[in-house]
């Protein structure tokens, strides 16, 4: 009797995910659905937790024991473009659930879609909330196009269409750029979608309450307007069709000259925007003809989740050929033939006409020669160099950004023989003689700790804390090295909301990582955030800041540090300490540091204001009905809180039976009581008590 085999596959996007389990015959035996699994949004551990939860649900659906691992699991997720972080995610899933799978393969969401619809090579063009494209040739070569996210791309995706609609209306109202058609119906759809009365009411959705998928939801209403005949909505979808055709044309160039360049390429079209193909088709075909695409294209849509492709990749990962039925996996909805659709022969248009077919009928004709004459030539040469402002900032500031690692001098890793790493963070050099600025919580209150600093050149040096101030959460380190590059300190006094900033540091132990965003607020008061004993304001930004990024510089477009990355509450809401506070701290660094609390817990916390509670509930609908409390943002390894079992993400609602409304209640309990403290916490949907004995410090 043959042994049964089981393969899992995950289709993971930014907003939702699907998981399937197949047996060795290719039949689906278990399914599960879950929220988004983009590790750049959730973090490696948060992403792993969601995958494990779906896998356990799918095993139960399949009738498989939870303690029996799958033969192989394929994860094709949004954001999984880097081999290093992919390996970290696979290892994290195995560490958290040793019974998940014997082998784990991690790849991008485009790879999952491609291997679902075109396992022998082809193209996938994703146009959902965002956009992305990938070509895999028959000999295994891969080429990408787009997929840079909403700040740097997403052309043809739902967010891009929605954003284009809003910009068109705003620019027309300002007189900055006149709309090509009447804006009344589109503007009405925008107001209805965002529940706003005027343009100013929409600004929070672009800054404070920005949610990419919610913003992209406007596209559904625009598609209905286009179907009903609204000229501006049809124009917007025409632009989207041309943008998606540009992805196809760019990748089709990669196969020129192979096998006469006339072989058919299967294009797997994934995402909700492709449902609007009838209103994008004319402009898409027109653009393919203008780009002189000479390859036959077979456009298909998937009949099954691309999780099936992920399962297929999982099987291939261990050398097993999982059976598949191509006709059951996808269906052809359009065939593009250059001789018919573009009337292209030897680079010339026949009779000066380009004919566009819609299924079995012709939908229109246009003069190819007149299009060429009417087209405005655009010289793009030099734009990459001219507009690479983020790269310019990185080139100036990155050499002075350092990676900080805290080692426990008492514990040794038995495999490596090195001291166990307690935590890590970031910093940046402010004096060429080895003075490094960072957050106090990165380096202070770490018993038996040895601090190591890694420079950009790869060299590692022992460091010591020269000065610290826990009230402002600032500290300086010193390493015995001279003539080091430094970051210039700018000014935070003239910082403006909407200004571009770049966050630099070492999140998740990834040295010299860069994220970009805009300033949401320059004056977010510590009292407003519920931070006890801190008479200061913070810079709020949507530049992603994760654990390990703390202490790194927040840099303006002049390459000057205007803040220090301090904390992230939820994606899109991060805070930095203004550089003007830092300058004052550096002036006073020679004086004694501020006294620390006599009773030490070892946590960084944030009071949950009504606004933050609303944000958390919007992003996690499963969160129980919490009305007050503090959010545990970070727990110091080896601290009393850590030893008692408190975890980042826990919400403390009571202490010794009394309700907790702000961080001040925690400090008051530390000062007014002795001995043990009973913390009432909520972790996910589970309420429990944790007993902590603070240290005298």
- Poorly predicted segments: 257-262, 344-376, 593-597
**Mean pLDDT, as a whole number?**
81
Number of H/I helices = 23
How many domains is the backbone divided into? Answer: 4
SS strand fraction: 25-35%
Q: Could you explain the architecture of this structure?
A:
The protein is an alpha+beta fold. The chain folds into four domains: 6-117, 2-Layer Sandwich (Nucleotidyltransferase, domain 5), CATH 3.30.420.40; 158-305 and 321-374, 2-Layer Sandwich (Nucleotidyltransferase, domain 5); 383-595, Thrombin, subunit H (Beta Barrel), CATH 2.40.10; 599-696, PDZ domain (Pdz3 Domain), CATH 2.30.42.10. The chain is built from 23 helices and 35 strands. The strands form eight sheets. A six-stranded mixed beta sheet has the order 8-7-6-9-10-11, sandwiched between helices. The chain has a six-stranded antiparallel barrel with strand order 16-17-18-21-20-19. α10 (231-252) crosses α11 (277-290). The protein is globular.
What's the arrangement of secondary structure elements?
Layout: E1 6-12, E2 16-23, E3 28-35, H1 39-42, H2 44-62, E4 72-77, H3 83-96, E5 104-108, H4 109-117, E6 122-127, E7 131-136, E8 142-145, H5 158-174, H6 184-194, H7 199-206, H8 212-216, H9 218-227, H10 231-252, E9 265-270, H11 277-290, E10 297-302, H12 307-317, H13 326-329, E11 330-336, H14 338-342, E12 344-345, E13 348-349, E14 353-358, E15 361-367, H15 368-374, H16 383-386, H17 389-397, E16 401-412, E17 419-431, E18 435-438, H18 440-443, E19 449-454, E20 460-469, E21 474-478, E22 500-505, E23 513-525, H19 526-529, E24 537-541, E25 553-555, E26 561-570, E27 573-578, H20 579-587, E28 599-600, E29 603-607, H21 610-619, E30 630-635, H22 640-644, E31 651-655, E32 658-659, H23 663-672, E33 677-683, E34 686-692, E35 695-696
Parallel strand pairs: 1-4, 4-5, 6-9, 9-10
Antiparallel strand pairs: 1-2, 2-3, 6-7, 7-8, 10-11, 12-13, 14-15, 16-17, 16-19, 17-18, 18-21, 19-20, 20-21, 22-23, 22-25, 23-24, 24-27, 25-26, 26-27, 28-35, 29-30, 30-31, 31-32, 31-33, 33-34
Helix pairs in contact: 2-3, 4-12, 5-9, 5-10, 6-9, 9-10, 10-11
């Amino acid at each position: 009797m043959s042994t049964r085999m089981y393969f899992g596959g995950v289709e993971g996007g930014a907003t939702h995910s699907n998981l399937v389990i197949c047996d060795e015959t290719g039949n689906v035996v278990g399914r599960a659905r879950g929220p988004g699994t983009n590790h750049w949004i959730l973090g490696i551990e948060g992403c792993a937790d969601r995958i494990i939860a779906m896998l356990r649900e799918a095993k139960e659906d399949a009738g498989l024991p939870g303690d029996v691992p799958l033969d192989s699991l394929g994860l094709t997720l949004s954001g999984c473009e880097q081999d290093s972080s992919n390996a970290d995610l696979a290892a994290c899933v195995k560490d958290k659930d040793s019974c998940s799978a014997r082998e784990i393969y991690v790849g991008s969401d485009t790879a999952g879609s491609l291997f679902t619809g075109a396992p022998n090579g082809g193209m996938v063009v994703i146009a959902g909330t965002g956009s992305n494209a990938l070509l895999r040739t028959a000999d295994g070569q891969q080429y990408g196009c787009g997929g840079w996210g909403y700040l740097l791309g997403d052309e043809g995706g739902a967010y891009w269409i929605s954003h284009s609609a809003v910009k068109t209306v705003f620019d027309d109202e300002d007189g900055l750029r006149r709309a090509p058609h009447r804006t009344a119906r589109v503007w009405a759809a925008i107001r209805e979608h965002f529940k706003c009365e005027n343009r100013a009411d929409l600004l929070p959705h672009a800054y404070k309450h920005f949610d990419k998928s919610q913003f992209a939801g406007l596209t559904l209403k625009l598609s209905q307007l286009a179907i009903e005949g609204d000229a501006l909505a049809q124009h917007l979808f025409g632009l989207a069709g041309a943008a998606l055709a540009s992805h196809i044309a760019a990748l089709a160039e990669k196969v020129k000259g192979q096998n006469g360049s006339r072989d058919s390429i299967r294009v797997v079209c994934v995402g909700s925007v492709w449902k609007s193909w009838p209103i994008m088709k004319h402009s898409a075909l027109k653009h393919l003809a203008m780009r002189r695409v000479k390859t036959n294209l077979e456009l298909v849509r998937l009949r099954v989740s691309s999780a099936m492709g992920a399962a297929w990749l999982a099987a291939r990962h261990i050398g097993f050929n999982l059976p598949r039925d191509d006709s059951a996996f996808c269906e052809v909805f359009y065939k593009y033939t250059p001789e018919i659709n573009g009337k292209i022969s030897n680079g010339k248009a026949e009779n000066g006409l380009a004919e566009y077919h819609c299924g079995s009928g012709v939908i229109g004709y246009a003069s190819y020669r007149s299009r060429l004459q009417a087209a405005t030539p655009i010289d793009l040469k030099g734009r990459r160099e001219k507009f690479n402002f983020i790269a310019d900032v990185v080139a100036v500031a990155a050499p002075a950004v350092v990676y900080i690692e805290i080692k426990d001098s008492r514990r040794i890793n038995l495999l490596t023989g090195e001291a166990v790493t307690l935590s890590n963070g970031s910093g940046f050099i402010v004096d060429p003689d080895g003075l490094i600025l960072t957050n106090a919580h990165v380096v202070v209150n770490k018993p038996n700790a040895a601090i190591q600093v890694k420079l950009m050149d790869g060299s590692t040096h022992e460091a010591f804390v020269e000065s610290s101030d826990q009230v402002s959460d600032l500290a300086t380190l010193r390493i015995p090295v001279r003539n080091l590059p430094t970051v210039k300190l700018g000014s935070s006094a003239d910082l403006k909301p909407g200004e571009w900033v770049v966050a630099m540091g070492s999140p998740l132990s990834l040295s010299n990582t860069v994220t970009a965003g805009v300033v949401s607020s320059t004056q977010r008061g510590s009292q407003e955030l519920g931070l006890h004993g801190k008479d200061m304001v913070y810079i709020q930004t949507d530049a992603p800041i994760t654990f390990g990024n703390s202490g790194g510089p927040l840099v303006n477009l002049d390459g000057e540090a205007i803040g220090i990355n301090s904390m992230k509450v939820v994606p899109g809401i991060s805070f930095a300490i203004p550089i003007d506070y830092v300058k004052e701290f550096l002036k006073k660094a020679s004086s004694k540091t501020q006294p620390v609390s006599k009773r030490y817990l070892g946590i960084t916390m944030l009071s949950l204001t009504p606004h933050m509670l609303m944000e958390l509930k919007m992003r996690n609908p499963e969160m129980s009905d919490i009305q007050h409390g503090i959010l545990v943002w970070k727990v110091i390894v080896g601290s009393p809180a850590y030893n008692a079992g408190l975890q980042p993400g826990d919400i403390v609602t009571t202490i010794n039976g009394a309700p907790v409304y702000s961080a001040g209640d925690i400090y008051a309990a530390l000062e007014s009581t002795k001995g043990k403290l009973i913390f009432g916490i909520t972790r996910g949907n589970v309420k429990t008590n944790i007993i902590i004995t603070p240290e005298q410090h």
